[in-house]
Amino acid sequence: MSTSPNTIQHLIIHQLHKEPNGPARVALSSTEMPINSAAQRLVDHLCQLYGSRNGKGFGKFEEDEHEYPMPALVRRYVDSSDFLGFSQQAIAQLQVRAEQEPEASGAYVLMAHVSNSAMDFLFFALVGEVIGTAVNADMHLEDSIHLDMDHLRVAGRIDLGVWQAGGERYVSFLRGRGDVAAYFKLFLGCNDMVTPLKETQKLVKGLEQFVEQQALSAQDRDEVFQRAHNLLDEMGNEQGEVNLAEVASQIYPDAPQALQDALQHDDLGLVDGFVPDRRAIKPLMRFKAAAPEWKLEFDRASLRSGAVIYDKHSDTLVLSNIPDKLKKALLEQ
Length: 333
Known about the structure:
By secondary structure, the protein is an alpha+beta fold. It folds into three domains: 7-192, no CATH class; 196-284, no CATH class; 286-331, no CATH class. The protein contains eleven helices and 14 strands. An eight-stranded antiparallel sheet has the order 2-1-4-5-8-9-3-10, sandwiched between helices. It has a two-stranded antiparallel ribbon with strand order 6-7. Helix 8 (244-251) packs across helix 9 (256-263). The N and C termini lie far apart (54 Å). Pfam families: NA37. InterPro entries: Nucleoid_associated_NdpA (IPR007358). Keywords: Cytoplasm. This is Nucleoid-associated protein.
């Protein structure tokens, strides 16, 4: 997840009123919020919380803009810079989707245009309220209603840079609780794309990057890869879906949160909920490389057993225990 400082371009909060199984209505703010320390703290906290959450879906806009108006709204906003108008049209669409979902409930609806060194994005979050306790001027305790900043269940993000560049994965949203997540996904107009092969490849890449960053010993690295291979192979065989928190705890039990954070990094774009493709986990156990004149594949363990030796001084690989069939073929050349 990115820790780059956030620059808030625009920020507004409207309110969605709705009880479960009841109608939805909205209370609109007539102006954007001033960008002060309180606004900065709120946006920074929600963006950090969003980045740290697993269980996100990723995808792109649906093509039917009549049924899914969000891409048209975003395009008009980018052309006009009318964020107030964009936010009011967007919450009208959210109201329509909330009406269609009986379990949807009311909340404050935060919409922001934010940029940092990693991306330029639109951020949407439904934020509830909680009752806390405050001390008033008379030193008496009283109830204090404030935004519930620590329990983010419904939120989404549109990466404007990737969208404008014609990318494939620029919309993300918290999967959350089934039906609620579904109506918010419809509001965003997101066609989420989960390809098991690609997601498994990204998971393997994330593991490789993690062990390199941790500077693990060769033995510890092999053990991590072995556990990962065994787990993902079993999940792929039994059609078990990946949960990053659970996977991290089994692959790297010494510091599972560190691995989970690495796998959830925005740059990796890895999602939950896919069944591992067993074809993509081979690199965890095997090296595979090629040059114009040769191809080579061997188990990582061969480097530890001595069956394969790399001499960095002469830049050569030495293979031992050559099978008779290969020896014969070589002698006949």
